[in-house]
Amino acid sequence: MKRLIHFMGDEWNLRPAGGATGEAYIAQQGEHKIFIKRNSSPFLAVLSAEGIVPKLLWTRRLENGDVITAQKWVSGRELKSPEMSQNRVAKLLSKIHQSEELLHMFMRMGNHPLSPHTLYDELRGKIGEMDIKDPYVMEGIQWLKKHIEGIDVGVKVVCHADVNHNNWIISEDNLYLIDWDGAIVADPALDLAPLLYLYIPKNKWENWLYEYGLNLNVNLQKRLRWYMVAQCVEAILWHWQRQEFHDISRWTDLLSQLFNETEFHLS
């Protein structure tokens, strides 16, 4: 923080912008405000150029190697949960997943696509490190192993990997998806699963996916269900580390529903 204040100069007033990393700040000079972040996503320029995030103003590298980015401040708000069913959410996520420039840049940086087997191995490793014997977690990891064959369809895109409604910002007529620190290359179902299961009633999945650009078929259903089970297991582990038992209960309830889910009727 001190280094950043020194870099920006005394004429700027900095205050934390919130977020899990604590690396984001609002810099204000009179009525002028900008969003400052340290070591943000390296493909922020591409995201900005495609209108996925607020406009990138400049990038600077500090003497210690930290990279500082400044983005246009937008006066907006987070989407509310019911708003996630809107067509504009489907269309923006589709635009992101179809971006060849994003994908090529990510791959040029040496990032390897996340396969279902890699994700399974990572979760199993976390369970071993934490020495967790929770029956839901154990059943979840066993279910993932049992159903992993046939999940990898070979389609890989840049996934945001945290499509929570808090990361969708609406400003005037513009919709943005922010906080790209955890982005990975993976099956688009990695993003679609939590968005559909957590926000969209099942009787509206087909229409929402039509706006996104996909048909809901049996293969996609299986992938969505598999990635949602994986997300539930990961979320339970995350909350276990923080002893947040109320949140654990919420995710175990969803996991139980997924275990008992059958393929629903397609029109």
Automatic annotation (TrEMBL):
Specify the Aminoglycoside phosphotransferase domain's residue ranges.
43-214
Under Gene Ontology molecular function, one entry of this record is: transferase activity
Keywords from the named record: Transferase
Please list the coiled coil stretches: none
The protein, known as:
Aminoglycoside phosphotransferase
Source organism: Evansella cellulosilytica (strain ATCC 21833 / DSM 2522 / FERM P-1141 / JCM 9156 / N-4)
